[in-house]
Amino acid sequence: xxxxxxxxxxxxxxxHAAVGLMSGHGTNFYFIWLFMGVVFVFWGxxxxxxxxxxxxxWIRKLTICFFVMGMSLFLLVEGLIVSKCFEKGEDNLxxxxxxxxYLRPTGPSTVLKYRLDKTYDYYIENPNVTIVVSGGQGPNExxxxxxxxxxxxxxxxxxxxxxx
Length: 164
Description:
The protein is mainly alpha-helical and 164 residues long.
């Protein structure tokens, strides 16, 4: 069991690093993976050193219960996300709303660029759609996300469909 926890911890830490490298530091939510990784590695080391056996049985059982519940919830949510990940939106919608994400001084973050490029592709296939961009200005952003998103789409030639 200790080796399993350490392996899970290392995987979480590597996932944190991969997200940071691929999408940049636009959001701090991905630090949850670093936190979980450190907790798993620490728990695995404590277990291996025998400190866990010194804890009362009810604390060990409660910890395992929380771990199982947490992993079950995580797998359920991830399964729901992945199951809809590659679905295509309906054709000929009246409106589409594009949610904001981190805006770098040089332009949209990787995640936001993917959203905007999908929006552009949808617009090309459905030119009568009205596009609504949304997003505020975070403390580490130089302007509101919606403004940067609109500029990106305007540069691609979407003028008449864009609502801010």
